[in-house]
Structure formats: structure tokens, C-alpha cells
Amino acid sequence: MTAVQKRILINKLALGFSTFSAVIALGFLFWILGVLMMKGIDALNWNIFIYEGSPPGYEDSGLKHALIGQLILVGLATLIGVPLGIMAGTYLSEYGKNSKLAHTIRDISDIMMSAPSIVIGAFVYAIIVMPMGHFSAWAGAIALAIIMIPIILRTTDDMLQLVPGTLREAAFALGAPKYKVIIDVVYRGAKAGILTGVLLGVARVAGETAPLLFTSFNDNFFTTDLNAAMPSLTVTMFNYAISPYDDWQQLGWAAAFILSMFILGLNIVGRLILLAGKRK
Amino acid sequence: MASIIDIKEECALQVRNFDFTYKGAPAPSLKKVTMPIAKHAVTALIGPSGCGKTTLLRAFNRMHDLYPGNKYEGEIEFEGRNILDPKEDLIHLRTKIGMIFQKPTAFPMSIFDNVAYGMRLQGIKNKTELNDRVEKALQDAALWKEVSDRLKNDANGLSGGQQQRLCIARAIAVEPEVLLFDEPTSALDPISTQGIEKLVIELKERVSIIIVTHNMQQAARVSDYTGFMYLGDLIELGHTEELFVTPKEKLTQEYITGKFG
Amino acid sequence: MIDKIFLNMTRTSALLILFIVAWIFVVLFNESTEAMQAFGLDFITKDEWAPNLDKFGAYAAIFGSVASTFLAMLLAIPIAIGVAIFLSEIAHDKIKGFFGVSVELLAAIPSVIYGMWGLFFFVPILRDIFGGMGIGLLAAGIVLAIMILPFMAAVTRDAMNTTPDILKESAYALGGTQWDVIKDVIIPYAKAGIIGSLILALGRAIGETMAVTFVMGNVHHTPNSIMDPTTSIPVTLANEFTEADSSLYFSSLFGLALTLLIMSFVVIAIAKFYFLRKVRKA
């Protein structure tokens, strides 16, 4: 075998291995997705949206409590996290720029984006749950907001920096004060990007379980009391899945399916917005 | 009607009725190009951006095959065969027809390993042979004196002009028959450009050269033959001095006098 | 006037993130001092975790975290690199787009779902093959590997895609095969980015809770084999935080949280500042 023939053979083997590993990986991932679809759609019915949780064995048990709880927790986290994240990102892009402080903040939020979320839960437990003496929706929402802020901050920073400097100068040249320039010109130019960042940030925290385990804890009943423990899809899913009861496990899969569709939906919409923005 | 001169000497390549269509494009980017390429001479391709000169150049070593869906029609004859044949051995073809790019493309490895790369691909492992041929290639590329004491250094530490000469050394180390230059000086300063041009003229003793350039003065300085392309057609091919002094086609004249382009 | 207010609002928000991070460290440190004082270094070197005796040694949990992450990396890295090569160099445009987006979307699926799948579908298979409970270090490593795979493959592919086309073309122009170009040009060129991406994935894996909680066993016991049930830091936290009944127990759990935070901070910082920073400069 000549050297070139040998290289061609090695090439085929290596590319074969890569393709094979892609098939393996996607096989596993589609297996999981398939399980989620089958189990989830199987368990899906109207009762899920109408009834609250019940003890195992009851006909009319559902996930209404967890669905509403999830929306409240994520909604509250978004209300806290998004304005803070956008403002912080604005500071980095428009004021801090290349200063040492701005770089430090960028670095720290990069690290925070990958930091273990359960640790955030422990932190919020110590600063809110312990002093208050009980679990609460507030604690859960704050834990989620802390996870969300770095994501929003970094995308806002990146997206604002994409707005051309000449646009700012043009607005300044008309005599606009800086805050007006930022709000009227810079934000408008980066609208699609910021919106995408917000959607991806919401999607990311919506799937978090660990930081809620000991902050908003869980409840099997419908509640809107922000000062009490609040059920969420993720924690409910966890509790139901490790329970020994078939009907609870079914509900767990239904919750997994609904949540995944919600998160995938947010991701897809976020991408489409960004794509549409780019095409312009 | 195109005016293509007959080349009396031996030809390195013969392009006949060559059509090229990019993937998904409604019309061919090159239309019925017929063009002889003289052996051991420099042929320059000039024309405004988008005229197809780089597209034609990249057909000679079938670079377009890296991106699926492109379509060749017609014939390019090299060493007695049509290299557009789907069965053509591209690995072999590319060792025979080398290429230099718009920007220096030093690989992320040492200077020595860069030059030795093509030889190693061909299975040359003998240390003395590698050493000798690397030195020879670097000397031929007029780079030996500058780098002989730091062959083990990262090639990315060299200046742009040095890197481009390194790429030339790397290409000639595998002893190709033809070298394709795709605007080789567009990223270089005037002094480095001079060096590369000098090298091109020296190299034609051993290889046949095709050079794409957007710089007419450069074509005039280095080439023996010049082809003028426009909108996918080869408008005129002639001896360089004749084409620039007494062009046969009106379009050529307008282009070289700067009326468009 | 409004300008000043706006500046101050944005600056306060930006400083808030630094403040929160510092606060997290301070709180975790304060809360864990009781355990530190009670056990000293024994906290991380002993593996006796006996809440009824008020004895807390976190060695098993730390070992479990490291071992499951190591196992996950061992399994995921070659496959992720293979997937990344497939996505950046082999697949045709349409497949590339479809699989590329699929991989990114899969990275967004909540990790708790990977855990559920592991418990209900994968553990039984392990049980059939190896006997025993199926739950344990190996199950955790595999589920973790699968969970981290989409993220790892996506960032590795992005790192490989930074290689300029012209550089790849010049290797092809010398008669290189696709694999020659991948191993001699793309991987060396994108080396720092690839390693950084892999370590970043490691940083995520080490702090992952939900994918492994289901399948690890939560037994405070340093495993003798990869089939043994054991625990990890996040698994212990998830299972025991709401059950802790003494202040020393709580303090020990906070000690675990602090240990985990430091471990992942260091890993992520190495990835970001040592490897990925180089990429930005290039």
C-alpha cells in the first residue's frame, strides 16, 4: 500500500468514525425525545389543565397547580431579572465599554452563566427562606432571576455593541441627551437581539429544577400566595417521577412534555426573531 | 467574438469549451471558455471583479469540488487527460497543480513542518531527504536566509510577505507542474509584493504559472501571456505586451485604459 | 439630570451582579463555618456521613462528583468531537442545518428530563446487563454524558468553524484528504477553542443536579466499582437540604455547596480565561 492509499484509507476510517458517533449521539438524543413525545402525549388530557394534584389513585388529578405555579415563578423571575439584566448590559455597552470594571463584570457573569444552579438555591435559602422561616414563591423567583440576569446582561451587551457607532453620533449631533440616544436609537436598533436574549433567558430558567427545590419548594395544590411554597412543573415532575405510583409518573411525563414544548417553542421563536432581524 | 491567440509552444493546460455553474446559480459563471496555457510561462488573468477569473483558476485544481453542487462542463486537458473527468484522482491532481491564495495561509505549525507538509502527505519520511528538500524549497522561495536559524519556530510569527513566500516554498516543495496564484499580493505591502513578483518570474523556469490579479501593472510586469475576462467570457488572450499596447478587442481596450472596472 | 439618573440606574444594576456573586460566597462561607470548625479538613477527607451521629464527611460526595464527571467526559469527549467534525466538515448543507439546530435545541431540554429518561429507560438496561440495581456511578456518568453532549458538540463545532476556509483550502490544494485537513489544520488551529469548550462543558457537568439525582443512588459511600450506588455534591444537596434537622447538618450542606461552587468556578475560569481568551485575541 502506498502512502497515499494509506491516507485515503485512514481518511475513510476517521470520517466513518465521526459519522458513526454523530449517529450514536443523535440516536440517543432522539431516543430521549421520542420517549418524551410518546410518554407525554400518552399522558396528556384535558383533566391535566383542569384539576390540581391529588393523592395517587384519584381519577381527577391534574397539573393545574404546577402549570400556574410555573408561570407565576417564571413570570416573577422575568419581571425581576429582565430589567436588571438589560440595564446592566446597557451600562457595559454604553458607559463601561472597555473599562476594567466592565470587563470584570463580563467575566464574572460569564462564569455565573455556567455556575451550578443548585448553589444559587442554597444561597437564596440562606438569605430568604431561613430568615422568613418558610418556603416562598418569592424565594424561588429570586433564585431564577439570579440565574437569568447574567444571560440577559451578556446578550444585551453584545447586541447593543452591534449597533453602529455612527447611529449614536447621528443622534447626538441632533442634540439628544445620552439617555434619549440609548432609549430611542440604540435600543431600537438592537430590539430583535435583546428580545431573543430575553426569550432564551426565560427558556433557560423555565427548565431549572435544582434552584427551586428548597426555595419555592412544592405543593400539591393550587395557590397564588407568593409568600407560601409554590408548585412548579419541574419540581412536581421530579417528585412525581421518583414516586412509586404509576398515575403520578404519568403526570410527571405530561409535565415534562408540556415544559419541553414550551422551552423548545421559546428557543425556536427566539431564533426566528434573530434570523428575521439579520435578514433586514 | 473573442480573440484568442494560438500558442506555438507546448501547452501545460488546454481549456476547451469550459462552462462552470455554481450550485443553485441560474446561469453559468464561465461560458464556453477556450484557452491554452503555455508551458513554463506566466499567464495572467485580468478583468473586473466578478468576471470569473478566480472561478476559472479554481477549476484547474478542482477546488470547487470542496463545495458540493457545482457543475463543470467541457474539458481541461492536463498531461493528456481531461481533469474534469469525475474519476480524476484529485489528491494526485492537486500535488501536480499547486495553489497560492489571496492571503498567506501558514498552517498552525512550525516553519519546517509547513514546508514539509505536502511531502509528508506523499509519504516521504526520510529525515535527510525532508531536510534537503525543505532547504531547497525555502531557497527557491528566497526565504532560506531569513528563517534558516529558526525553522522550528511557529510559522505565524513571520511577517505577511515572509508567510506568503513560505506558502510558495510549501507549494513548490512537492514539485508541481503548474502553480496557480490567486491575487497573491493583495494582502501585502509594496516591498513584499515586489519580492513575490520577482519570485514568480524566477519560478517559471520550472513550473507553468497562472496568476489572477486585479492589478494590471502587475500583470504587465510578471506575465508572458494575459487573458482578459469579462462577465464569464474570455474576451482576449494575447502576448502581454501586445494585449496592453495594441488590444484587439474594444472591451479590452476600454478596460486597460480605465474606462470601467 | 435624567441622564445622571439613567447612568446611575444602569451602573447599579451592573454592580449588582458583582455584589450578588460576592454575597453568595460570603453567605455560603458564613453558613458553613460551623461545619468547618467542627470537622476541619476531615470534612473533605472522611467519607462518614452520619446525620444521626452528627458526623459529616463529604469525601464520598466530592469523589462522586469528580468520578461521575470524569466518566461523563471520557464518554462524551470523543463522541462530541466526532459529532462536531460531522457537523462542520462532513454533513451536506441541509443535514448540517437540520442536525445543527437539533443539537442546539436538545441542549435546551431541561436536564431533569434526561434524569427521568435515565431512571425509567436506561437504568433497567444497565440492570439487565450488569445485574444489581443499575443505579450508581456508571448510570450517572452515562446520563451526564448524554446530557452534556449537545452543548459540548455545539460549542466544539463553533470552535472548529472559526478555521478560515482559505486555510483549509490550502491544505486541500497540497493534496490533503478531508481527515488530513481536520487533523493537521482545523484541530491545531482551533485547539484552544476546542479545549476551552470541552472544559466549559466539564464545568457545567460538575454542577449538574437533576440529570444525576435520579440515577446515582444517594448513598454516602465511596464506590468500589462503577456499578455501586454513590452520591455527588449536587445530589446530596437536592436530596437532603429539606430534611436537615440540625444546624451542624445545615452547615455541612452549605459547606458542600461552597465546595461545589469553588470547584466549578475554578474549572469555568480556566476554560474562559486560559483557553477561550486566547481565541478572542487571535
UniProtKB/TrEMBL annotation, chain A:
<keyword id="KW-1003">Cell membrane</keyword>
<dbReference type="GO" id="GO:0005315">
    <property type="term" value="F:phosphate transmembrane transporter activity"/>
</dbReference>
<keyword id="KW-0812">Transmembrane</keyword>
<feature type="domain" description="ABC transmembrane type-1">
    <location>
        <begin position="67"/>
        <end position="270"/>
    </location>
</feature>
<feature type="transmembrane region" description="Helical">
    <location>
        <begin position="12"/>
        <end position="37"/>
    </location>
</feature>
<keyword id="KW-0813">Transport</keyword>
<dbReference type="InterPro" id="IPR000515">
    <property type="entry name" value="MetI-like"/>
</dbReference>
<feature type="transmembrane region" description="Helical">
    <location>
        <begin position="135"/>
        <end position="153"/>
    </location>
</feature>
<dbReference type="InterPro" id="IPR005672">
    <property type="entry name" value="Phosphate_PstA"/>
</dbReference>
<feature type="transmembrane region" description="Helical">
    <location>
        <begin position="67"/>
        <end position="91"/>
    </location>
</feature>
<keyword id="KW-1133">Transmembrane helix</keyword>
<keyword id="KW-0592">Phosphate transport</keyword>
<feature type="transmembrane region" description="Helical">
    <location>
        <begin position="111"/>
        <end position="129"/>
    </location>
</feature>
<keyword id="KW-0472">Membrane</keyword>
<dbReference type="GO" id="GO:0035435">
    <property type="term" value="P:phosphate ion transmembrane transport"/>
</dbReference>
TrEMBL record, chain B:
<dbReference type="GO" id="GO:0005524">
    <property type="term" value="F:ATP binding"/>
</dbReference>
<dbReference type="InterPro" id="IPR003593">
    <property type="entry name" value="AAA+_ATPase"/>
</dbReference>
<dbReference type="Pfam" id="PF00005">
    <property type="entry name" value="ABC_tran"/>
</dbReference>
<dbReference type="InterPro" id="IPR017871">
    <property type="entry name" value="ABC_transporter-like_CS"/>
</dbReference>
<dbReference type="GO" id="GO:0035435">
    <property type="term" value="P:phosphate ion transmembrane transport"/>
</dbReference>
<dbReference type="InterPro" id="IPR027417">
    <property type="entry name" value="P-loop_NTPase"/>
</dbReference>
<keyword id="KW-0813">Transport</keyword>
<keyword id="KW-0067">ATP-binding</keyword>
<dbReference type="InterPro" id="IPR005670">
    <property type="entry name" value="PstB-like"/>
</dbReference>
<keyword id="KW-0547">Nucleotide-binding</keyword>
<protein>
    <submittedName>
        <fullName>Phosphate ABC transporter ATP-binding protein</fullName>
    </submittedName>
</protein>
<dbReference type="GO" id="GO:0005315">
    <property type="term" value="F:phosphate transmembrane transporter activity"/>
</dbReference>
<dbReference type="GO" id="GO:0016020">
    <property type="term" value="C:membrane"/>
</dbReference>
<dbReference type="InterPro" id="IPR003439">
    <property type="entry name" value="ABC_transporter-like_ATP-bd"/>
</dbReference>
<dbReference type="GO" id="GO:0016887">
    <property type="term" value="F:ATP hydrolysis activity"/>
</dbReference>
Automatic annotation (TrEMBL), chain C:
<keyword id="KW-0812">Transmembrane</keyword>
<keyword id="KW-1003">Cell membrane</keyword>
<dbReference type="GO" id="GO:0006817">
    <property type="term" value="P:phosphate ion transport"/>
</dbReference>
<dbReference type="InterPro" id="IPR035906">
    <property type="entry name" value="MetI-like_sf"/>
</dbReference>
<comment type="similarity">
    <text>Belongs to the binding-protein-dependent transport system permease family. CysTW subfamily.</text>
</comment>
<protein>
    <recommendedName>
        <fullName>Phosphate transport system permease protein</fullName>
    </recommendedName>
</protein>
<feature type="domain" description="ABC transmembrane type-1">
    <location>
        <begin position="62"/>
        <end position="271"/>
    </location>
</feature>
<keyword id="KW-0592">Phosphate transport</keyword>
<keyword id="KW-0472">Membrane</keyword>
<feature type="transmembrane region" description="Helical">
    <location>
        <begin position="129"/>
        <end position="151"/>
    </location>
</feature>
<feature type="transmembrane region" description="Helical">
    <location>
        <begin position="98"/>
        <end position="123"/>
    </location>
</feature>
<feature type="transmembrane region" description="Helical">
    <location>
        <begin position="12"/>
        <end position="29"/>
    </location>
</feature>
<feature type="transmembrane region" description="Helical">
    <location>
        <begin position="186"/>
        <end position="206"/>
    </location>
</feature>
<dbReference type="Pfam" id="PF00528">
    <property type="entry name" value="BPD_transp_1"/>
</dbReference>
<dbReference type="InterPro" id="IPR000515">
    <property type="entry name" value="MetI-like"/>
</dbReference>
